[in-house]
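As the next step, I needed to go through one protein, both as residues and as discrete backbone shape codes, included below for the reader:
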Amino acid sequence: MLALTLTAQKVTGLVTDAKTGEKLPFVNIVFEKGGGTQTDPEGHYSLPFQNGRLRFSCIGYETRTVSVKQAGTLNIKMKSNESSFGEAVVTGRREKYSRKNNPAVELMRKVIAAKKKSDLKAHDYYSIDKYSKLTFAFNDVTDKVFEEGKFKRLPFLKEHVETCNETGRLILPISVDETVSRDIYRRSPSEEKSIIIGQRSNGINDLFNTGDILSVLLKDCFTDVDIYKDEIRLLRYPFISPISSRSAINFYRYFIIDTTYVDHDKCIRVDFTPNNPQDFGFSGSMFIMADSTYRVKKADLGIPRNSDVNFVEDMRVIQEFRSLPTGEQVLCKDDMLVQLKIVNFLQKFQVKRTTEYTNFSFAPIPEKDFKIKGGQFIHPDANMRNEVFWEQHRPERLTSSEDKMGLLVRRLEQVKGFKPVLFVAKAFIENFVETTADPHRPSKVDIGPVNTMISQNFVDGLRLRASAQTTANLNPHWFAKGYVAYGFKDHRWKGMGEITYAFNEKAYLPREFPVNNLTFTYNRDVMSPSDKFLPTDKDNVFTSFKWTTVDHMMYYETMRLQWDREWENGLRLKAQLRTQRDEPTAALFYQSLDGMGTPSEDASKYRKHLRTNDLTVGLTYQPGVTWINTKQRRIPSNQNAPIFSLSHTAGLYEHMGSNRAYNFTEAGIYKRFWLPSWGKIDTYLKGGIQWNRVPFPLLIMPAANLSYIVEDHTFSLIDNMEFLNDRYASLMMSWDLNGKIFNRIPLLRRLKWREYLGFNLLWGSLSSKNNPFLEKNATDSRLFYFPGSFNPEGTFNYLSRVMDEKKPYMEVIAGIHNIFKILHVEYVRRLTYNDRPGTDKWGIRLMLRATF
């Protein structure tokens, strides 16, 4: 049955099953002259009108062709193929799903068992050529957008708009990344390498000096999908493969639909969906060869409509497989299309990734090819390939808009008022302000970080800071950065200056991976002892507001020479020479033990300084880590990589004319564990020993976070220097359940909130040689009275205390994140050491963090 009514130059309609009336998603709709789309998950479609024949096709249904002579509404009913397989029966009646005696489940068990026959690592060697293209575009760019919307002042953008063949929607491509690589493997000794032969990136990335933020994020979120692996890392989450050997049968529900032909091969169509549609898993169809091989011929993957994934309106992955002469079934083509919506008032986006695998070979590979460092090697000429190279390696030509990406950028640069908008956008995104707005004269000096320009603390009061750093546009090997700051309460100037020599030439900043830098730093400022544990700047405006009074602070003057060296395998070595002079201020003072039991108020007014001179050597090993470079810091894009760390500090401290050695050793392990459909657990185990007799500033204090902002790997309710130890061990665990419980509560399901649980434990002890409260140490001038303050009655109250070896400090965390998709709020409860008056037993902490 056809119904046709006039609309404005569009052909729209609904596609349904002729027998059941069910709306059919992902039906291919193509004009014979070119141009087409697919139906959405509700069976609707829309595409620009053409006068000609329109073909409707879908696996499992008879292809239907209709003549279209005018724009309007065209509803189509499609007949299913009558073919069947074995004893499979399809009924419209909903029955309770059972795995027992289920032919679909039995078939999938055989498919999973057959995976071993397609394992290429059974060969001594293999090599594969790979081409990948990633296009990022604005989506649903209608005429109304140019007439009334944000693109009204940019009419030339209409020339860059094109129709997406897969969806029929109008898109505006804004960046295109292409990569040609060769993946190689050998079994003994086992090694895998990826050699990038050619790569290029065009589009809005060119407008940002740290433009790799966009390309690296896109590549990290929309990775290759290999269903032959048990887990597939996609959107930075592990999705369980529909043919996972470990979890698929229990995680998915399978349904045999019918038999059909794919490229002349008879196949069984099996549909699948997660048991809980809000779990992070795939839904879709697989087409299994209807013979004894049980090989996958084609896969059509998506995510359930009610999935808990953020920002993704729709995703579809279509994969095609072929048989090699040696018998393995291999992926030869992998297409991904993702529709994104961040918030309602922003333009929608589309990500399209096309990957093709060719030239499978099992011939021996020369030894020299495996001598490259790290798992990935970029050919020296990879970024300089000419157009002939790309035409030879592309399976299909770029679209007109993709090919004119350079013209698009040049036109944007010429728009009046665009440069100031771009200037502000860069400052917001990168937290730095460039000193030139001309893309053809790249910034040699950047101003920032912006979020440190104004802050406050107990000693400074209101604090203003001006900061800057040079870039590789000034010199690719020599870098400088620094700041000056002024406190309006203590009326003192502070500052920092740093010079870095990078042995490796840098693209923009010296911290780019892999690092091989020599750095000299001079710093004169004020801080609380706990500030050293903050992973961000200590005068970040967002962390300058504290949940407790932080009045034990110190002025410090530091000179440091550091060599920092990284290797491609994730190993990092740091060696540092440092001299530092600490001068206590506000409520903090340094006073040697004098046998009085507690410091006298008069003596506390005499503030001794402490000078330390030390050498630190540290090793960190983070196998498989990848990084995203920003102007402020670099961020690990793959936090699944474990981190092993070991460091030792040896030094001499100078006090009252005497020199004594001190030695501090510390080790740590971080690991993320993914639980099938139950989210992830982050575990951080750390421990350390101070080996010598030392005054309290050289003892071990807990990694306390005194702000209201959540900071990773810190304790939320330990006060500044509350515990002082010379031995410690800490365990920090956090469990993001990813909505596993909330998704089963009707009132919370639609909010997409996610649960978060945490537990932090600190065990510590103070040996008798460093305990100032023991009578035998009462007059030992090498030790200081622990910090504290005098109350109005003149009584001294200690801030720091000695931990009970049999009683660790513990705190638990219960949180909700993904509130409005960006807000994380947690309640923290302190379980032990609550006996002291004024102890904060609970607190609320928050942060902004967006995840899929």
